[in-house]
């Protein structure tokens, strides 16, 4: 399984081109990326095509989807775009994805282990800080609970 770690800021030109960070390109080893809107955050998820395809599973054309499967298919798969970075690592982001993520002249690439997230840089920093604060709060709560349990 390919793992992506780290944060990188790269430029975004007026044609929607940006460069995939060299470390991520190395880990992709020439594989295409499947781009889609995140359902949880205002960012673009970039999945190695093989990981995205493996997650889909197989279905028979005779399988009748239920309503939840229908919603999932429309929300998660109909807006996907497959891109292959050129030899220099550049790729073009679709205009609707750029608008969704609020991107302007630069992008933040965040490694999320199995996928890459593409954010507006200030929004990425805010999300990282929010995550740090949430983890610190949970650690404080666990410590308080452990000290309360020890004194009982």
Automatic annotation (TrEMBL):
It comes from the Bacteria. Residues 7-51, 80-123 form the SpoVT-AbrB domain. Keywords: Cell cycle, Cell division, Cytoplasm, DNA-binding, Repeat, Transcription, Transcription regulation. Transmembrane segments: none annotated. InterPro entries: MraZ, MraZ_C, MraZ_dom, MraZ_N, MraZ_sf, SpoVT-AbrB_dom, SpoVT-AbrB_sf. It is found in: Cytoplasm, Nucleoid. PROSITE patterns: SPOVT_ABRB. GO terms for biological process: cell division. SUPFAM superfamilies: AbrB/MazE/MraZ-like. Forms oligomers. Belongs to the MraZ family. This is Transcriptional regulator MraZ.
């Amino acid at each position: 399984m390919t793992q992506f770690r780290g944060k990188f800021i790269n430029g975004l030109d007026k044609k929607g081109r940006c460069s995939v960070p060299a470390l991520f390109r190395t880990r992709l080893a020439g594989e295409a990326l499947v781009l889609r809107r995140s359902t949880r955050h205002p960012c673009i998820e970039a999945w190695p095509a093989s990981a995205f395809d493996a997650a889909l599973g197989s279905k028979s054309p005779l399988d009748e989807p239920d309503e939840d499967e229908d919603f999932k298919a429309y929300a998660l798969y109909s807006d996907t775009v497959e891109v292959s970075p050129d030899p220099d690592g550049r790729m073009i982001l679709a205009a609707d994805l750029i608008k969704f993520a609020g991107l302007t002249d630069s992008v933040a690439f965040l490694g999320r282990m199995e996928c890459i997230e593409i954010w507006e840089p200030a929004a990425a920093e805010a999300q990282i800080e929010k995550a740090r604060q949430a983890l610190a709060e949970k650690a404080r709560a666990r410590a308080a609970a452990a000290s309360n349990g020890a004194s009982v």
